[in-house]
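Input record (Table S2, row 130):
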Amino acid sequence: MKPTSSKPIRKILSLVAIASVAMSQLLMVLPSVAKDTKVDDSLSEDRKQALTHIVKQDCGSCHGMTLKGGLGPALLPENLEGKTVPFLQYTILHGRTSTAMPPWKSLLTEKEALWIAEQLKEGKVAESQH
Ligand code: HEC
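Output record (heme C complex):
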């Protein structure tokens, strides 16, 4: 007498195989975790110098080379008293509607605008030689 050859284990194995193929395809379509090499925590000294230059030349065209004001208001620490760094950063990034102050977000990152705002509050741009 032969043993019956219905082998439920085969069925289970083939289901597992199908499931694992489906799984691996699912994993392939998942986006690979992007490694963002551009996320840097601090600005380089070169970039800081370039930003200082931008502030004097570009911002200076309205705010004055020494930031004492012109078409735009003076941006010296005494003029910015009572204004927070985030507020100034926001102004730099987004400009002020219906004034001549343009938005800079296409040219400056949030971090750069933050750095500039900090330098303005501390009066460091006007002091610097760059
Ligand atoms: C085309 C002229 C112009 C340029 C260029 C310009 N600004 Fe301004 N900015 C203004 C004007 C005008 C105001 C005043 C807006 C208002 O009346 O509130 C202003 C306001 C500001 C304020 C807010 C000052 C305050 O007391 O609240 C900051 C900060 C500032 N600008 C930073 C910058 C920086 C940094 C740059 C360069 C990245 C720049 N601006 C370039 C015209 C300009």
